[in-house]
Amino acid sequence: MDKNYDLPIDAALFPEGCTRCSLSKFLVWIAAVMAVFGWGLYAAYRVLAEGLGVTGLDDYFGFGLWITFDLAVIALGAGAFFTGLLRYILNIDPLKNIINLTVIVGFLCYSGAMLVLVLDVGQPLRAWFGYWHANVHSMLTEVIFCITCYCLVLVIEYVPLILEQKQLNRNKLVHAIAHNFHLMMPLFAGIGAFLSTFHQGSLGGMYGVLFARPYIARDGFFIWPWTFFLYVLSAVGSGPVFTVLVCTIMEKMSGKQLVSWEIKSLMGKIAGTMLTVYMVFKLADTWAWANDILPRSGLTFDQVFYGWIYGKWLLWAELFACGVLPAIILIVPSTRNNRALFYTAAILDCIGVTINRYVMTVQALAAPVMPFDSWETYAPNWAEWGASAMIMAYAALILSLSYRYLPVFPQEVKLNK
Amino acid sequence: MSSFKEFKIKWGMAIDLDKCTGCGACMVACQAENNIAPQPDASNKLKSLNWLVVYELTNGKPFPEHEVAYLPRPCMQCGKPSCVSVCPVIATDKNEEGGIVSQVYPRCIGCRYCMASCPYHARYFNWFDPTWPEGMDKTLTPDVSVRPRGVVEKCSFCHHRFMQAKDKARVEGRDPNALNDGDYVTSCTEACPNGAIVFGDVNNPAHKVHDLVKGKYAFRLLERLGTDPQVYYISRREWVRRLGDNYLENEKVKG
User: Fold this and answer.
1) What is the pTM of this model?
2) Rounded Cα–Cα distance for residues B13 and B231 (Å)
């Protein structure tokens, strides 16, 4: 058989009918990614070897960039469970064209968050205590259980995609396993939706139950503070468009169209609908917090903001510029189908949920509760940025390898003919 | 919020802020008693360990009306501790007769969720490995365990002294659950030169603290948040009491 020597050297591994850049070009990109990864790995080594004293965290800010990063990526990774729920349980068939990417992005967000947590806990070797000595009253226990279990579900969802790699799939056993995994996928999508809903909620609940911290304390329903429900809604209101943004970045980098506009628009419609529901409840929650919880604690609205760094602009930005505005753009068909407006709304939506996780994590700890205490400010240092960059590099690496070698996008061949 | 036990004995403190001069003897005594390692560089006060901190309070007025008060802040050993229910691994608990909130160092995973929950900043994290200058390790209190890097610690009301007092009572044939006033006191109580800190069982009428906490000028920090602290403060000065909690402009201070 004649060989085409113009093709990249690893062309036999590419998905059926797809073209990719040369291996050398790909390796230059991977080298750049690995340089960032190496910097992060050094930061991680310093943290594990010398302790958390090398970070910018302190006794006022026990939670900082890493927890914000974790909460944000877990919210943005919600595209995986929610799209899975819609595709496999509610049978919204067109979503099959982006479901693989949502699974990979979800897996990266969750596994990345867990890697950061290894650094963030003071005694990582005791991480298993969360299972062994579980405190059933703690929202964090539920987070530990659900995040680890859901990460396993995401691995199970990712495995068939790997097994469908062109060369691997030639093996009959591998082919049969991949096929059977697919048949079981609705079951895992259901388990994933259950686990993910609960821990997205528990992450919010974690803050809402802090009754002695008026900035984040919330009333609620039964054992769940309102933040429990708000976190679920904000995650499903932003996760789907985050996946679309990741897809678009991949399209820009590869120079190919990977998912049709109709699918992106559908994801935007789903996120926009959920974001709208979320914003209704978030605005109501903010109003109740300012008019009930704060005065009940002896505080005024003005007292829980400070200077520029923890100013009211963050709240207004979160609620309106990055909340109401993208919600309107995404639910109105004419604005949603204007690509510039669509992407602007998607970016604002993701920024909004990140601001929310940031203020709930950092500003909540910066705000003094004792009247004679002072506002403190927090800035992450190189070790925290480095470790976070390591996770981004890890995500870029896995996404790059997945795109190059795995059949991630069912529409790719058709869209690029 | 999960429910918490009620105790027959409730160890508590009454700190008279009008007697406190802010000398810091309580802080020093606490550090020595509880094996808190000296740090090579303790200039960052948000990364250095003090189970008990003395805060300076001012009435905010210019001279000659300017006044100051000093407020020692140990762990409040809250009746409804915000830290206990949040700990994912039950490394902190309020389960022993006496109502002292425990901290189990070998159990703590160092997640710092308890620190985030505590509005008093009574919890501290071991950001660095504890090291004692040569020879100083000989001064360690034998009954107090040292803590490794990566775990949270806090004031225990000198719990080892509670154990010692109970042992002494047993040896002397007395009931260890009916200690006399003064049988068990914390090191800060003992070190205060002005007798500003009074320690005992707030439920026992035979203990001096019992009456002090019921006084007209007694208050607790951030009472309205519902943490139910076992540490009480006393001040005859209204502005000091006002700084004990958050009040809206039109709200009156008790006492």
Assistant:
1) 0.95
2) 5
C-alpha distance from A311 to closest chain B C-alpha (Å)? 20
Report the interhelical angle of A261-288 vs A339-358 (nearest 10°): 40
Residues 210-239 of B with CB under 8 A from A: 221-222, 224-227
- Least Cα distance to A261 among A340, A337, A347, A348 occurs for A337
pLDDT of residue B2: 54
Cβ distance B109 to B91 under 8 Å?
Answer: yes
Q: How many CA atoms lie within 13 A of A227 on its CB side?
A: 23
Distant-in-sequence, close-in-space partners of A225: CB < 8 Å, separation ≥ 6: A204, A205, A207, A208, A209, A217, A218, A219
Angle subtended at Cα B74 by Cα B73 and Cα B75, rounded to the nearest 5 degrees = 120
- Mean pLDDT throughout A84-94? 89
CA–CA gap between residue A52 and residue A119 (Å, rounded): 8
- What tokens does B8 get? 């027959």
Query: Please, which pLDDT band fits residue A339 given cuts at 50, 70 and 90?
Result: very high
Between chains, do B225 and A120 touch, taking CB under 8 Å as contact?
A: no
The residue of chain A with its CA nearest to that of B50 is: A59
Mean pLDDT of A161-172: 94
Kindly state the DSSP code that residue B56 receives in the 8-state scheme. Answer: E
DSSP 8-state assignment for residue A10 = T
Domain boundaries, chain A: 18-415
Residue A80: which pLDDT band, with cuts at 50, 70 and 90? confident
| Burial class (CB within 10 angstroms; exposed 0-12, middle 13-18, buried 19+) of A417 | exposed
Inter-chain CB proximity A58 and B127 less than 8 Å: yes
**A296: helix, strand or coil:** helix
Domains in chain B, ordered, with CATH? 22-195 (3.30.70.20)
Q: How far apart are CA A74 and CA A301, in angstroms?
A: 29
Does A111 have pLDDT greater than 90?
yes
Q: Does B46 touch chain A (CB under 8 A)?
A: yes
pLDDT at B3: 66
At residue B183's C-alpha, the angle toward residues B181 and B184, to 5°, is 100
Burial of B190 (0-12, 13-18, 19+ CB in 10 A): middle
pLDDT above 70 for A28: yes
* Residue among B57, B58, B102 at smallest CA distance from B78: B102
Tell me phi and psi for residue A45, to 5 degrees.
-60, -45
Quick check: B121 and A60 in contact, CB under 8 A? yes
Of A137, A139, A213, the CB nearest to B119: A213
Tens-place pLDDT, residues A343-354: 999 999 999 999
What are the residues facing B123 on neighbouring strands?
A: B154
